[in-house]
Amino acid sequence: MSLPQISFVVPLYNEKESFQLLLERLNKLMDSTSLNIEVVMIDDGSKDNTAQLMQVNALQDERYHCIFLSRNFGHQLAFTAGLSVARGTEAVMCIDGDLQDPPELFADFYKLLQEGNDVVYAVRKNRKENAIKRAAYHFYYRLVKSISNIEVNLDSGDFALISRRVVDIMNQLPEESRYLRGLRSWIGFKQTSFEYDRPERAAGETKYSFKMLYRLAYNGIFNFSDFPVKFITNMGVATVLIALSYFGYTLFKRFVLGIPVIEGFTGLLFTIILFSGVQLVSLGIIGEYVLRIFFQVKGRPLFIIKNRILNKEFTEK
Ligand code: UDP
Ligand code: MG
Hints:
Layout: E1 6-12, H1 16-31, E2 37-43, H2 50-60, E3 64-69, H3 75-85, E4 91-94, H4 106-114, E5 119-127, H5 131-147, E6 156-163, H6 164-172, H7 180-187, E7 191-198, H8 210-222, H9 227-256, H10 265-298, E8 305-310
Bound molecules: uridine-5'-diphosphate (UDP) and magnesium ion.
Uridine-5'-diphosphate (UDP) binds at residues 11-13, 15, 44, 72, 74-75, 78, 96-98, 100, 201, 206-208.
């Protein structure tokens, strides 16, 4: 069996509205290039008929390679599953299934890959989303960058062309709470960015609930930074220093200046409430790391593949 040079990896969760358009655009792209391309589609436990649509298409088009996960594992794990089965010998292109990552940009990415880059990742110049969401993303990426132990690519998502050797390394990383853009950057090699205007999704609604977005944001912060724990330690040290100086000041007032010391109730209450809060937050932050250890040591597989359609033939061009 001959192998494709490039794999497109596309996670799909309830994407029946945009599916036809996705096929048209991918087919047009594959027809217009001399490269051998396969498209790996991952059904992330869709509840609509996305899985059937994928199946019907893959059975008649050998360029499509489908896996069906046993349930909804989420965008990051769907990509992880796709990367693990992609056969592209040169590189893997990660795109979303809602056409927010235009497949047509592949040619530009591929050129940069051939110039010696191992990872070409997309950077969003303009987001076609509402102002609050845009501002939140803007702030978030800058926060992660400032506290992170790795080089963070600002405003970039999972849309990227990744060389075979880097994909192989990503596949070996056992990390449980996956934040792919962080892992990709952590691996190193020569990486470069490509700016593009991110369009709106082709059809349907976002499949990312607020909860999922929140979890992703947490992974970005806690998986690549020891800042939160260091911050607690520093805060603890600062608090002790403040308390000691205040104690010294009170003694000085009482015994050197001879001023009687009467302290107010409000000040006392304020201090108690403030530090109870600080302690709870600190416990939560430490708990966050403990949780990550907890989930990691279970050693469960990251995803479960229920079914796979891999056509025997892959005709070379
Ligand atoms: N997706 C997925 N599993 C999920 C949620 C989303 O595979 O649990 C897919 C979805 O079908 C799409 C891509 O991941 O192809 C990006 O999701 P979405 O467009 O909803 O996210 P947004 O662009 O709004 O951040
Ligand atoms: Mg989208």
